[in-house]
Queue: 4 jobs
Job 1
Amino acid sequence: MNDEDHRGGAESSGPTLEMSPEEMRRLGYRAVDALIERWSGLRRDVAWRGATRGELEALFRRDPPEHPEAPEALFDEAVHEVLARAGRIDHPRFFAFVPSSPTWPSVVADFLVAGFNTFQGTWLESAGPSQVELVVLDWFRSWLGMPEGASGLMTSGGSAANLDALVAVRHRFGDAARPVLYVSDQGHSSLLRAARIVGWPAEDVRTIRTGADLRLTRAVLEGWLERDRSEGRTPAVVCANGGATNSGVVDALDELADVCSEQGMWLHVDAAYGGFAVLTERGREALAGIGRADSVTLDPHKWLFQPYETGCLLVREPRDLERAFTARPEYLQDVELGAEHPNFADRGLQLTRAFRALKVWLSVRAFGLAAFRAEIDRAMTLAERAEAYAAEAEDLEVLTGAQLGVMCYRYRPAGFSGEEAALEALNQRVQDALVESGHAMVSSTRLHGTYALRLCILNYRSTWEDVRSTLERVQALGGELCA
Ligand SMILES: Cc1ncc(COP(=O)(O)O)c(C=O)c1O
């Protein structure tokens, strides 16, 4: 068979989607070089770079070309023009929202996975990868202290994990009269969005106002349960915080686990960012009780140093997921290989799934768990030092102390006796000026209405100097804006 026949009669000199091994190597090495250059220079770079729609329309709006462009130039454009105009989420002074700083082995693992293009929906199509996913899930299960047999699946992130969990809960309580979902006012928005997506009636979703400590406790919850039962509803699920995004606060997990087991309810712990703190002694203490949950959301792309998109849902009874999600159309009749050989597509929303567990498997083995423990612990120490620094400073006010890497505070000029609104406006201006300077990327939030600056310190590259210089800039900018 000549080349022409092999290609279905297409002209061998015509357009093709193939590349020679030399071209592939050149491009691949170019990408690796670009990444290493970026990583090596990260500390000297700005922490954030934005752009307006107008600027970007002028730069990037093109019709797709009919004929090839030089790939090297295209890759350079992607690196220097497109990817550079974004926040550096892995910058050592990126303290906004929830940072993410992947390790090199996990990035390379993702590249491998893309090249192998593994289909991780069924055991038939991905036996080795499925086994590795089972192993990684079992690592997580044992770290959390969940019982043997608990398992789940890797997801695109915490939002997807929370959604999959609520699908399973809804299924479990399918026959109950008006099942009710409880979440604190510090719960992540993805939980309320998931409730909306699964069609949970808004009047049966209770967003519970927390007290000054921002925690959901037995005492805060119990009155609601009684009231709902007396009105003919069925308390179904408590969605607890295993590290609230706002402040790092952890709900009273042990107490909530007691309530849930007494009342036949499901306890879901959203530990998307905080969960991996269980690898440390103080994290285990803070998250005591998490292993008793019926389901736990984790986000390895947050505090386990993995690249996006790496989330995870663990459930005490994987059958709960399989009952809710399994669908077996004719064209998938070949994939049933028995309970020993789970099809991950039966445990969540996606049929076609990427092999996300590989990056965790490779990076944890490449560095050893002790390195992960040490970095998570160090981040908590930095947050505690930030709290101590702010508490001592005359012009900073701690709003919530360091909890699982998060500390909320605000600039408050010494002797300030003005209106709250003025303080809020001042802090907003400090925040904007700091972000604009590029020195650090920070974000704000509200704690029961009070405007707060927030530091989220999870990056293995961040040092005390990074944290201190950021707080010093807040003080300097605040001073300038008051002058
Ligand atoms: C506590 C918590 N839950 C859920 C999420 C959503 O996770 P993702 O952004 O991975 O979908 C986040 C993200 O910040 C979070 O902090």
Job 2
Amino acid sequence: MERPTSTIVSFDHDTPALARVYARRSTPQWRHGRLLLDTLALQEGESVLDLGAGTGELARLAADRVGPSGAVLALEPLADRVALARSKPRNNLRFEVGGSERLDGLPARSFDVVLLNSVFHWIADQQGVLDDMARLLKPGGRLGLSTGIADRPHQQAMVLAPVLTRHGTGTPVARLSPPHPAHPEELRRQLLAAGFEQPRLDTHTFVDHFSDLGALLEWNASSFFGNFPGGFSPHQTPDLWREAERALDPHRTREGIALERYLLLVTARRAASARPAAGSIQL
Ligand SMILES: C[S@@+](CC[C@H](N)C(=O)[O-])C[C@H]1O[C@@H](n2cnc3c(N)ncnc32)[C@H](O)[C@@H]1O
């Protein structure tokens, strides 16, 4: 069956500058990534696949946790982010350019843990990637992923979308969010269909703080690798900028602009007797 591909997401808008901003500003993703890693309870000597590793912060933490006898493979489609990630090497960590479309070359049953932190909601063919993860995991291996939720857009999208719409950019909430957020019950079904057991899907609320509107937009642009609707600045669109500032006023706190994000943290175990990998023969 032909796999669906996203018509919205482009990997061509990233730049070395956006990659550097992501490395500096991705504390929000780091916080729930660390929580996910804690839940997965990595052990010394384990092998880990981090799919969509970005600039590699979480992959490095995974490498520290599995120790010198373990190994982490970090795949990331954006070459500038891989280049940055490689500038902080670890002996047991390999960064490669690649994404969910190019997993065929990896041998089946080669990982104890696979991880997708803030990546799943960018992928159009979600059943396909879950099938691949089940193929790549050893029997009993663990999957961990975090994703946005379809009926719970982040607060920033609810605040900014009406402002952008009023200024004629026609930006709906969906354009300010990754394109494939999870429908939890559908995701549970997909996990079971892929051969996962004991799926746990927990909704978490995270509160992020931004020093100002500029910092919020920078975080978005780098987290969306250039796909976030841009073109608003204090100089070129001063009215829009002022209105966005006003819309954020109710969220200003002593720590900065406080905005809630809602994420589904998902863990599951590949069944010990998962169905055979495509093309293999079960004896
Ligand atoms: C918000 S960043 C998260 C990066 C990293 N996982 C972290 O926790 O910091 C989203 C990442 O997903 C990657 N991504 C998007 N679509 C992907 C796909 N189809 N396969 C693999 N990675 C993908 C992007 O290139 C980007 O680096």
Job 3
Amino acid sequence: MAKIEGFRVKNFKSLKDVTLGRLWNQQQAQPLAPLTAVIGKNGVGKSTLFDAFGFLADCLKIGVEEACDAHGRGGFDRIRSQRQNKPIEFEVYYRENSKTSPITYELSIGLDKQDRPCVFKERLRQRRSGQGNYGQPYSFLALDNGKGIVWKGETKGFQIDETQNNFDLASLIKNIKSKTGKAKEESKKTELVELDDNRKLGIATLGSLKQHPRISAFRRFIEGWYLSYFTPDAARSMPLAGPQKHLNIHGDNLGNVVQFMEREHPKQFQNILQRIANKIPGINKIDTEKTNDGRLLLRFNDKGFHDPFYSQQMSDGTLKVFAYLLLLDDPTPPPFLCIEEPENGLYHKLLETLALEFREHATDREDGSQIFITTHQPYLVDALEPSEVWILEKGQDGFSVIKRANEIQIVKNLVDSGLPLGGLWYSDYLDRR
Ligand SMILES: Nc1ncnc2c1ncn2[C@@H]1O[C@H](COP(=O)(O)OP(=O)(O)OP(=O)(O)O)[C@@H](O)[C@H]1O
Ligand SMILES: [Mg+2]
């Protein structure tokens, strides 16, 4: 399963320049853990970081102009960091699987002459395999305002002068054209491309072509990201019957997923129901009932009562835990799963269990999702390791700064001596200001 080892955001709302984990030129940093939790006071940028992932995924799906307006973002001027006249930038350092070398994706978004959001630069490059930390990575996609070069095939790529962070397309083309001998043969794998719409990402267009397997894999990876906007009210809606494979982001197809699980994975589903029943006192069975008009009802059997309750009558917390466990037991889980404040509405003693469920899914399951959460809950953080927890704070200039809990020596020592991390946070060891 693909994993994000590092992520950098620049000039996106309060995230003027924030890096999590390892980047291609920051190899000394530890990669992101399979489970990551971001904590911090109100207004430090947790939701913004969550939305940075959402914005990037939207850019791929609907193009940068629409992405600036989607999900109530309010347009480019609202989402670009205040007082910054620079482009919004993202860098994703990821590994398609444990056997391949890491790939870096860079994207910069700005305004064109008509003040419309567009893609300035886009680039994909891969570290050379078997060379440790040495040697310049190969680029296999480089676009500058919709024009550029792409390299066909599963390995290698072309070289760009890494002394400059921004590549110069004209000299790159000249360089490739001037190659001779074996290098000339190799350079035949390069192709000049021009996109007809510079509001669409190159990875969206080129990633749909078979001759670019690495670009396609990266596109599929981002398309597979799952950002949960689960609301118990949505889960109470009564969808038309029909099994559906995955829970959607709002959770309003909960009943359809239940039907799918019942039909396709009856054993696993029994397991999930049992697990939920063990965690939520009082529930001993959950199943579905099809109404005469073809809708689907989710039915909960409460131990104390003879007749079942329907999801419309169930508590917010019960529906939420049920939805999260269902999500974690998805037979084909998303590669990257983001959940904002999963603790909302849950009984405090359930939080440790939930954190452990997240960890088990992300770490132990071969094809498990990498999980990213934001939280305000020390009880949830109690179950986490310092390397899994990132603390966001507001810097002197009002922009967010981030640090990893295991970088604070005293916190590391206290956790090593047996103190729980959430307790230390509560006692101001993590965000002191
Ligand atoms: N364009 C922008 N430039 C700079 N800062 C911005 C911009 N837009 C919003 N902000 C600031 O971003 C900050 C982060 O907000 P965010 O919603 O991410 O906080 P949060 O950590 O999720 O807080 P909470 O715990 O209350 O949910 C806010 O303080 C807001 O003032
Ligand atoms: Mg928030």
Job 4
Amino acid sequence: MRSKGYQRTLKNLRYINKYFLRYKWHLLLGIIFVVGSNYFKVLIPRAVRESIDLVVEALGVHHFMGDSRAAENWGDAIGTSLMYYGLLVFAAAIITGIFMFFMRQTIIVMSRLIEYDMRDEIFKHYTKLDQAFLRKNNTGDFMSRISEDVSKVRMYLGPGLLYTINLISLFVLVIYTMFQVNAKMTLYTLLPLPLLSISIYYISSIINRKSYIIQKQLSRLTSIAQEVYSGIRVVKSYVQESSLGDYFESESELFKQKSLNLARVNAYFFPLMILMIGISTIITIYIGGTFAIRGEVSAGNIAEFVIYVNMLTWPVTAIGWIASIVQQAEASQERINEFLSYTPEIKSESEAELHGKIAGAVSFQNVSFTYPDSGIEALKNVSFTVEPGTSLAIIGRTASGKTTIADLIFRLFDPDEGKVLLDGMDARSIPLSHLRAGMAYVPQDVFLFSDSVEANIKFGDSTLQLEDIHRFAKLAVVHDDIMKLPKGYDTEIGERGVSLSGGQKQRISLARAFIQQPALLVLDDCLSAVDAVTESKIIEQLRTVMAGKSTIFITHRLNAMPLFDKIIVLHEGRIVESGSHDELLKIKGLYSEIFEQQSLEQQPAVSSGSG
Ligand SMILES: Nc1ncnc2c1ncn2[C@@H]1O[C@H](COP(=O)(O)OP(=O)(O)OP(=O)(O)O)[C@@H](O)[C@H]1O
Ligand SMILES: [Mg+2]
């Protein structure tokens, strides 16, 4: 990926220009400070030249004076003048330093501000993306775009830009000053610089290539370690510790070899640079010497030129580095742009504000849906209606399309054919935020954040009181479980704290949904890890919570079915039966078949559930 980057143009980085515009004052001031610091820096060699010339001339005169009193006074006068030059150099150095402080305070600060804005923009965009995109791109990919790629772009915005402005202004100022002194000598002494920059560019591109390989190997190592860590239970139970250990060791060995390889190249880098700088200093002194002998320049000029050449060599060595920063930033920005330019297919067709809340009526009209990536036709001509204030149970064997129905209601996908109506309106015509705000969804694979139990239940709604949280946790039959945790509702859960059982997680998610008091509640098989007795208790409570509102309950288990107003039976994406529990039993179809099967299975173990 990076190797291709070497031939890239910089069109992707143009995206950042809007940020430069936003922070134009930072940038402008930064440029002024950089130029200012270089202006004062260039004064120093001039002071050195004047003082050396002064000494050389004065010593000549002093030589003729002999040991007289005048000679002594003359010596004092030279001392005073030298002191003056010393102070001048000191003052120029201090002013340069102050300007350097401010140039970092403007340009590096600007890069941090832009970095912040970019992360924000990427994250906001991320939360808008639809399932189709999110499924195609994995977590690691998103993580690297928001962290690594943004950092690479920031390197371009901060140090990259700073060194470029510095390089250009220093070159202009120094070369201008050198030409003022002697044009021919300037040309001769600058001759080795291009050679220096080319060789340094060559070595630094080798270093970059090797670092990239090492980086990739490192992320391989991290992901192996991470995977083994999260799957440690499986690893141990299949007694795979030693074989995975060997695998890790061999990958680690590869990493070591590649790192040693880089260390070798790096070891060449500094000596080479010092050598080059030394050579150009010698050349300067030699050429300066020949010019001085011919009387074209003074001794002070030689000293001055040595300082100029040294001043230029360091920024020249940075050219290779800047070039690689820019290339990496370009490649990273391309990945960021690709992400930002993706427009979600699921979006609100009208952004018109709707007044009032959703009443909770759902109706599917001849809905068919095929998953675009797998080509599986998950729903075939499905029609049903849920009136506000009623409850519907959706049952069916695994992969029959139950979760797909829930996803379509929440517009995680749009149907290929037919319509999903909410309160009699096409779901597509309702603004997404309005649609989702009125409903709550507890998905099949419940998810809790690494935070306290309380924060997980109220989930962002800071207006909720503790009493409410307790009341709804009781309704979800999880309050007693929470009180038994070490710090009750303040217990940290997830990666940062205690682990909960599957059933506890499900009921906490349920409390989170209850507390929103939605007009429509969709529960996707979210009591599967709760025992049958608790499940029935929760469903009883559900009627209190959802009085006058609609509920859609997706499940495999039929124990609680008599409590629902209506049941639909899905089979391979089609509704094969529908009606109340008693009606369905009478039909003696798929429903009664599953019911009988489950009654038989459950009889011996009716009260020993697995909460
Ligand atoms: N994101 C997806 N991309 C592609 N195919 C999918 C996707 N989600 C589900 N499917 C397919 O669609 C079909 C219906 O899946 P769905 O998740 O709706 O079943 P389900 O009834 O909820 O099953 P379960 O009871 O096991 O949860 C399955 O064949 C499944 O493989
Ligand atoms: Mg499902």
